[in-house]
Design a protein that fits this description.
It is a single chain. By secondary structure, the protein is α/β, with parallel strands linked by helices. Helix content is 33%, strand content 18%. An 8-stranded mixed beta sheet has the order 2-3-5-4-6-7-9-10, with helices on both faces. Bound molecules: 2-acetamido-2-deoxy-beta-D-glucopyranose. 2-acetamido-2-deoxy-beta-D-glucopyranose binds next to loops.
Length: 275
């Protein structure tokens, strides 16, 4: 059963326009690429003096393996984790669907400005959901086999498109802790079926996960006696954890607070003696 399949209406809507805008960050990602289970994977090592022996699995937003995401993966590595992120878009992230800018023209990073009007967003989305549903479980199994030791623990973090895979990995007991930020494509069962602890990093101004849906999700977590924590921001849009404008001090604060919240959640749960 795929992580995003199953009947029922959405609590967090599938990615939409709001998922395709934001700022591209500057920096030189320090990881490397490798093919794991046939899927291109970004892998970044923790500094030797800080390595904690545990692994973070990164489930990307619709931009895939782009600078912002790679730099966030580098940050999880700097915090002590070996980090791996798979390209479930197979070289076809959303930003590839842009017309070439005219000579001398600054490229816009709001895809709504540059998306080909004939681009079939839903066709694109469904194709990649089908692949990711199938690829994430076997990729995860291959990562465990190739990189795991007997005492390695796992955590997973997903942004937008990646959120249902976080819930799926928590439901299947593959990871000791999970987290998502500005999630998309979530139904009741995603919350009802989790086993391990879930951290939700959200904004109240989110098209994909509006107030009413978030409250319903919390009800499901509460009724199911799940372990969770909610971090809720105002005055930031969907995408805040990855595509904030870093020249804006408040947006920079929110992005950093989301990252810190997630990494501290992982640190706390992965250092428990059991689980
Ligand atoms: C959520 O509620 C707040 C406070 O009432 C409101 O300002 C905001 O627009 C709501 N968000 C959405 C996405 O409906």
């Amino acid at each position: 059963m795929g992580a995003t399949s199953n009947a029922g209406s959405y609590l967090a809507r599938p990615p939409g326009d709001c998922c395709t805008k934001g700022c591209i960050h500057e920096g030189q990602p320090r990881g490397e690429y490798e093919t794991i289970a046939g899927v291109e994977t970004y892998i970044v090592q923790p500094p030797a003096d800080r390595a904690n022996g545990h692994i973070v699995l990164y489930l990307a937003d619709v931009f895939g393996l782009y600078t912002n995401g790679l730099l966030v993966m580098d940050s999880f590595a700097n915090a002590g984790y070996l980090v791996l992120g798979l390209d479930y878009f197979c070289g076809d992230p959303i930003w590839k669907h842009r017309p070439q800018p005219e000579a001398g023209e600054e490229p816009s990073y709001d895809i709504r400005d540059w998306m080909d009007p004939d681009f079939d967003f839903h066709g694109w989305l469904n194709k990649h959901i089908a692949f990711a549903d199938e690829a994430v479980p076997r990729w995860t199994a291959a990562v465990k086999e190739q990189y795991g030791q007997a005492d390695t623990k796992y955590a997973c973090v997903g942004y937008c498109f990646g959120a249902p895979y976080v819930c799926d990995l928590l439901a299947r007991d593959v990871v000791s802790a999970g987290a998502f930020a500005h999630p998309a494509s979530l139904k009741d069962h995603h919350f009802a079926n989790i086993k391990g602890p879930l951290f939700l990093s959200c904004t109240q101004d989110d098209y994909t996960f509006p107030n009413e849906s978030r409250r319903k999700a919390l009800d499901i977590l509460h009724k199911g006696d799940k372990t969770w924590a909610l971090q809720l921001f105002t005055n930031v849009e969907h995408g805040f954890a990855l595509r904030s404008d870093l020249d804006d001090p408040y947006q920079r604060y929110v992005k950093d607070a989301s990252f810190r919240g997630i990494v501290e959640w992982f640190d706390a749960w992965l250092s428990q003696r059991s689980g």
